[in-house]
Amino acid sequence: MSGTQPLSFFESVEKSFDKAAQFTHWNPGVLEQIKACNAVYRMRFPVKMDDGRIEVIEAYRVQHSHHKLPCKGGIRFAAEVNQDEVMALASLMTYKCAIVNVPFGGGKGGIKVNPKKYSSFELEKITRRYTAELVKKNFIGPGIDVPAPDYGTGEKEMAWILDTYASIHAGEVDAMACVTGKPVSQGGVRGRKEATGLGVFFGIREVCHIPELMEKVGLTPGVEGKRVVVQGLGNVGYHSAYFFSKAGAKIIGLAEYEGSIYNEDGLDIDAVVEHRKATGSILNFPGAKNFAKNIDALEMDCDILIPAALEQVITGENAPRVKARIIGEAANGPLTPEADEIFIQKGTLVIPDMYLNAGGVTVSYFEWLKNLSHVRYGRMEKRFTENLNTHILTQMEELTGKQVTQKEKTLIMHGPDEIDLVHSGLEETMITATQEVMQVWRDNPNIPDMRTAAYVVAINKVATSYAELGIFP
Ligand SMILES: NC(=O)C1=CN([C@@H]2O[C@H](COP(=O)(O)OP(=O)(O)OC[C@H]3O[C@@H](n4cnc5c(N)ncnc54)[C@H](O)[C@@H]3O)[C@@H](O)[C@H]2O)C=CC1
Ligand SMILES: O=C(O)CCC(=O)C(=O)O
């Protein structure tokens, strides 16, 4: 794309990739292979609506990389879905999985519908038909391609996908692993729902403890007391805001479709959600100042800005007016490459999507492993462990000469619960990923920003995987 025409989302991802590729030593052919989308399935299918009308639905599934299988990535329901967008999102999945060492290739799906305009029955028919199309073309399966929730979808849609897939593949013992983000009763894992937001929190918290970065942005270390603005109060935005509040940060600004609200003393996130449920809007929340546009929140004076809605919301046009010192990309692709350049000049720290929002896929990986291993995580059955654990407890007390506390006793007798395992696995993943990206950035002072460092980590890992497959010398 040339001249003044803005880059598409996929072109933006390619541009960031090329910027980073110059800091690697890989042959151009290898880089070309990593960048390309391996397979794009564009489908159209008819669905009969509640009023008898036939609507032709446009949908996609893109498998960006087969360097590891299955492919993995969410399914988006939005009126704006298009092929370029799904290709960009699938590419980001490849790089994201590589950074957090989740052994999948990148994939993504999208159905071009505004879910708010359809009844639940219509959405179920659309989701089931989409799944059948994926089965027909071999674009879904525990070892082929495993969808998950994304913008506009959640547990309900994942349950429909599982049910449709399992009905077609009757008797396939691993069928449950064909999709993640399912309800716990349908083989889901505890902790997936909040995983992306919690991962965003862990990632930003880790960065906030790196003295050289905090010095660069002129903030004190730690998240406590930080003034945070969040755009988008869906799955990722809500949970990010929730975990920041819990850690003592102040959510001073929020944006949803209908506008933005601001309160320097802090907003109670759950009360805002309740207010929106009751009134249909976040506006007019008691004590908060209203702003007519959702983009107004992006320009509020704050320490940390978390865009958690859609892509390309911060561009070369509004980036100069963004006041945040840290931008944590919870959404996929919220900044354009022009915005990136402006933030490098301004000294604003951008924590990139492709590792910051990897909490979702990390916990999806745990869910997939749980489904394939057919065991449950966490607390063992009492009948297997009681005698042994009582013995350990007695030995501990004898050896230390002290009585164990009630908390220690519960842990020894029952082991950690599934949610503890998932949260600690996610925390460890986000800390390790932050350190790996930081190491590359520190090792090469010419790398201009954290996004480029993250891409370098991802490119090196995917290229190494191809090289070890024997495909490239
Ligand atoms: N759900 C997941 O596990 C993951 C999601 N993501 C990304 O996070 C972003 C959000 O996804 P979810 O929270 O799952 O979607 P969601 O559908 O649960 O919530 C998105 C929210 O953003 C709001 N919104 C849309 N445009 C807006 C605007 N211009 N200003 C303010 N609010 C706006 C919507 O009304 C909705 O409430 C997407 O970019 C998605 O790709 C990334 C990793 C995993
Ligand atoms: O949980 C997953 O498998 C994918 C989540 C996702 O779509 C994303 O990280 O953008």
Provide an overview of this structure.
The chain has 473 residues and is α/β, with parallel strands linked by helices. The protein folds into 3 domains: 37-188, Rossmann fold; 195-356, Rossmann fold (3-Layer(aba) Sandwich), CATH 3.40.50; 383-410, no CATH class. It contains 16 helices and 12 strands. It has helices at residues 9-21, 28-35, 83-99, 120-136, 155-168, 192-207, 211-217, 235-246, 269-279, 337-346, 353-356, 359-373, 382-400, 406-414, 418-443, 450-468; strands at residues 39-48, 54-63, 71-77, 105-111, 145-149, 227-231, 250-256, 259-262, 289-291, 304-307, 326-328, 349-351. It has a 7-stranded mixed sheet with strand order 9-8-7-6-10-11-12. It has a 5-stranded mixed sheet with strand order 1-2-4-3-5. Strand 1 (39-48) and strand 2 (54-63) form a beta hairpin. The structure holds 1,4-dihydronicotinamide adenine dinucleotide (NAI) and 2-oxoglutaric acid. 2-oxoglutaric acid binds at residues 72-74, 93, 96, 148, 150, 180-181, 332, 357, 360-361, 364.
CATH topology of the largest domain: Rossmann fold
General shape: globular
Under the CATH scheme, which architecture of the largest domain would be assigned? 3-Layer(aba) Sandwich
The H/E string reads HHEEEHEHEHHHEHEEHEEEHEHHHHHH
- Would you tell me the structural class of the helices and strands? alpha/beta
Ranges where pLDDT stays below 50 over 5 or more residues in a row are none
Q: Quaternary state, please?
A: single chain
User: How helix-rich are the residues, as a percent range?
Assistant: 40-55%
Pfam families: ELFV_dehydrog (PF00208), ELFV_dehydrog_N (PF02812)
Binding site for NAD(+): 196, 235
Domain Glutamate/phenylalanine/leucine/valine/L-tryptophan dehydrogenase C-terminal: 189-470
Keywords: NAD, Nucleotide-binding, Oxidoreductase
